[in-house]
Every structure is written in C-alpha cells, then in structure tokens.
Amino acid sequence: KSLWLWFSSRYCFFFFFSQFFFFFSSRRRHTRYISVTGVQTCALPIFDENAVLEWFPQENIYFDQSNVKQRTRIELSASSRFIGWDIMCLGRRAANENYSHGQLTQSLELVCNNKPLLIERSDLAVGDPALTALWGFQNFPVSGTFIAGPVDKGILDSVRGLAETEGLFSATLMGNNLLCRYLGNEAEIEIGRAHV
Fold first, then answer.
1. DSSP 8-state code for residue 59
2. Are 89 and 59 in contact (CB under 8 A)?
3. Pair 93, 185: CB distance under 8 Å
4. Which 3 state secondary structure label does DSSP give 176?
5. Could you tell me the pTM of the whole model?
6. What CA–CA distance (Å, rounded) separates 30 from 17?
7. What digits encode the pLDDT tens for the residues 131-146?
8. In 10 A of CB 3, how many CB atoms?
9. In 10 A of CB 155, how many CB atoms?
10. Given the DSSP bridges, would you call strands 115-125 and 102-112 parallel, antiparallel or unpaired?
C-alpha cells in the first residue's frame, strides 16, 4: 500500500490511499471574505453503506477586516470513509496584507453514527493571544487540518516522517482516523510518498 498526498492549490492531486485512488483537479479559486459578516455552513452527510467522500476544497483566505462564521460538519455511517482537509489563510501574504482587523469563528466536526470523533472550534479576533502564543498559531498565517479514515494503524509512523515543510506538521490517530495538522507560511506542503 502507498500514500501520496500533496497539499496544494495550484496543481492536480493524485491520491493512492489504502485501497482507493482519488484524482482531484484544481483551479485557482478561493472563498473570499472581506468587510462583511459572512456565514458559511457545509454539512456533508455520508450515510450510504460503504460510501466514500473526498473533500479537498481550496483554502479559505480571510481578508483583513473580514468577520466570518464558518462551520464544516462531516457525518459518517459505520461503513463510510472520508478523506479531506480544511485550510485557512489569515490575510494575503502575496499582497503583503496581514489579518489585522476582524473576527473569525471556525468549527470542524467529524461524527460517526451520531458519536463525535472530532470537534474543533477556533474563535479568533485580532489581538487574540492564540494567534501569537506557542500553544496557538505562533504567528503563522496558514493552518490546515487533514483527516482520513478509517486507516491502518501502521500508517502513522510513515506519515510523520514525510512532511517537507518549513512550518510545523504533526500527525496522530484518533481511533482509526488519521489526523494531520499544519501551521506555516504557505498553503502548500508536500507530504511525499511512503510505502506502508
């Protein structure tokens, strides 16, 4: 079995993960929020038996002065599978624009048979200690969460050694789901290739 992942917003993605092959073609599209209060809710129910969802949206770029509430909820059945990510960028680095004014409330939930597997919530405002603290975002403008499951438990050590990034990368298992996190300056990191 092999694993090939590429966090990117400019290229095509090829995934060979466990027993599935995924292809995702991307264009340079982003969710843009500026100077308004925006609300976005994505509910992704996957209740069919043995259903598979690959969810690889473009990164959300939160422009300076944006006020946003974003919620993503993935609901699985016992036999369904999920692989996907959620990436957020605070400000526009290419335009030398920082996220210096605004409010962001973001939640990510993964539920299986009405049992929560992951519930995350970020409630950020400019000046919030979480944006600069070592226990928080450490002044990195990009944060990403990758979830895949169910996976073989042996995949964890392979994934941990693959990240080629100047930011921070971690991987862990929550039950039989792989959870990877990234903090950095770019929305692209190459995870590479491993044989498991």
1. P
2. yes
3. yes
4. coil
5. 0.74
6. 26
7. 889 999 999 999 999 9
8. 21
9. 19
10. antiparallel
| The Cα angle at residue 163 between residues 159 and 165, in degrees rounded to 5 | 165
DSSP alpha helix (H) spans, the chain: 155-160
d(CA 161, CA 158): 6
Q: What does the DSSP assignment read for 14-47?
A: EEEETTEEEEE---S--EEE-SSEEEEEEEEEE-
Q: Burial level of 180, CB count in 10 A (0-12/13-18/19+)?
A: buried
Residues 81 and 51: beta-carbon distance below 8 Å: yes
3 state SS of 94: helix
Residue type, 106: Q
Alpha helices per DSSP H over 37-178: 155-160
Q: How much of the chain exceeds pLDDT 70, in percent?
A: 76
Q: Supply the pLDDT for residue 14.
A: 35
Tokens (6 digits) for 149:
């499951």
**Cα 112 from Cα 159, distance rounded (Å):** 24
